Amino acid sequence: MQLVIIGNSAAGLSALEAFRKRDRTSPVTVITKESTIPYSRVLLPYYLRGKTTFKNLFIRSEDYYSQMGATCITDAVVKLLSEKQTLILENSAPVSYDRLLIATGSSPVKPPIPGLEGKGIHHLWTLADVENLMPCFKKGKSVVVLGSGFVSLQGAWAALSRGLDVTVVELLSRIMPNALDDHGAQILTASMKQSGVDLRINTRTLKVEQTHDGKLKLYFNNGHDLVSDFIIVGTGVRPNIDFLEGTGIEVDNGVVVNHHMKTTLPHVYAAGDVAQVPSTFGGPCVIHALWPTALETGRIAGACMAGENISYEGSLNMNVTQMFGITVASMGKFMDVEGAETWTDKTLSHGQYLKILMKDGVPVGATCAGGSELVSTLGLLRPLIREKISIQGDPAALKKMLAQNMTRYHQAYGKGASCAL
Amino acid sequence: MRFITMDIKKCVVCRNCEYACSFQHTGDFNRADSNIRVAYHDDIKICLPQTCMHCEDAWCMEICPAAAITKNEETGAVEIDSGRCAGCKMCILACPFGNIHFDKSNLISRKCNLCKGEPQCVAACISGALQYVTAGDSCRNNREIFQRFMATLHTPL
């Protein structure tokens, strides 16, 4: 059985490792268009900020593929011939598969703004992007970040930490619409401004021009135009699915898969950012395009491709980061919605925010802003959200509930099962 | 393989374990720097020292985007490599027990590492509540036990 995995980031690696746990002999080929040593996308902004080293970006060893008994081909996949179970590559010979995993990830998209290309226009997505950005990150330079999602703001934070003048431009009326609620966004906005970021909400970029002294001029709908040394475009991503054209595979926002990560094509699986996967809340499939979801879906795909019949419990979105001096995190459903009760922790000091959303006593999501201790409360909630376990009483008693249950557990199973459970 | 176990009937919330942990890892006695935390709920008369369970398939270890969390083959401890940790806090978000903390001076995550096989919290425990014992059948498979534990959450107290 020949397994072929396209992609060597979170989903691809996780699938390979889960597969090898179950099948040590079948040949595996990994095709990647990037460097053969896997690196961590999550760490790229941390590297830009100087919080981690270049060496630490690489999360597997140089001999990783030989250790895993896999062959690695560095090339781009041009086409999938699903009837022949073959992949056409750009430079190398075609590769046949018995089972195929599409873990091709996603790529940043540029909004249709005239002049938004060429010199000085960057993304913050791949190692190559960061290598291009690094020489621009010099004290005294100026950068405009288009978009205010997680990656954009981490880029802005990295630039600010290195002494650049930073402007963040957001089309909507608030930052981080996909990861924070209004109040959390307000707290982060305040600390961004306090840190010295020129934040412009409700701002549409009309066009970008290269100036004769090598800079970029941005024109905005409100007339407050500005000149900058370079631009980071962080306005969303789209799945890498061009090579699937003509295969008839079901694609909605991404490649649609079932609970076993199977696509609608025989012997073809998908995982990670490219896949539209079941959600933990049921309903339509989702693309969370997050590291944890990529790991989980990769693990399920790897196990299923090795013949194990396991099902995905559904993606639960979760985000955390520290920037501009505060920690923000969210999980599950964190926007106030009808039919859900909202609980906020009133005992917290000023600038600390924790909100839990519940439906019929069952937590469905939470968000926080402030200190890092708040994040661990979200951690306690995760199994409850996934297993749909109701909180007995007030969420304030969450830690007490854990203690009570652990105590009961200790009593039931004796001291041998104590701290180590 | 050895685990830290705890007899809740014996814990008297003296917090020696917290001080010992802090001293071992920072050279100072600051409870906020301890990796073991005694949760004391006086209204329900519960005192529960909480520290890393060193889970078999640790969620923190799987999720770490820096590959900074590994299992020490000798001690069985799930350890954070402070040289690799970038401080992203994903592990804190992943831990279902709240047993990973943030080191505010070095801006990285930190957790129990079993003190390389000589846990100082156990050494400092005055009541015998904390023990460092060889794994018996009851805690051989942490994951399975964890699942059984999660199931107990369903049942009303």
CATH class of chain B: Alpha Beta
- CATH fold description of chain B: Alpha-Beta Plaits
Query: From the structure provided, what is the oligomeric state, counting identical versus distinct chains?
Result: heterodimer
Compute the CA-based radius of gyration of chain B. Answer: 15 Å
The biggest beta sheet of chain A is recorded as: 5 strands, parallel
| CATH-derived topology of the largest domain in chain A | FAD/NAD(P)-binding domain
Taking the sheet with the most strands of chain B, its summary is:
2 strands, antiparallel
Report the uncertain regions of chain B: 152-157
> Can you name the CATH architecture of the largest domain in chain A?
3-Layer(bba) Sandwich
Average pLDDT taken over every residue of chain B: 85
Total domains of chain A: 3
Briefly say what this structure is.
Chain B: Keywords: 4Fe-4S, Iron, Iron-sulfur, Metal-binding. The complex is a heterodimer of chains A (421) and B (157). Chain A is α/β, with parallel strands linked by helices.
Task: Describe the protein.
Chain B: It holds the Pfam family Fer4_11. Chain B: GO terms for molecular function: 4 iron, 4 sulfur cluster binding; metal ion binding. The complex is a heterodimer of chains A (421) and B (157). Chain A is built from nine helices and 25 strands. By secondary structure, chain A is α/β, with parallel strands linked by helices. In chain A, the strands form seven sheets. Chain A has a five-stranded parallel β-sheet with strand order 3-2-1-7-19. Chain A has a five-stranded parallel β-sheet with strand order 9-16-10-11-12. A five-stranded antiparallel β-sheet of chain A has the order 21-22-25-24-23, with helices on both faces. The relative contact order of chain A is 0.13. The model of chain A is unreliable at 413-421 (pLDDT under 50). With 157 residues, chain B is an alpha+beta fold. Chain B has helices at 16-26, 59-63, 90-94, 120-124, 142-152, and strands spanning 2-6, 37-41, 46-50, 69-71, 78-80, 101-103, 108-110, 130-134. In chain B, the strands form four sheets. In chain B, strands 1-8 form a two-stranded antiparallel sheet. The longest helix of chain B is centred in the N-terminal third of the chain and has 11 residues, at 16-26. Chain B is globular. The termini of chain B are far apart.
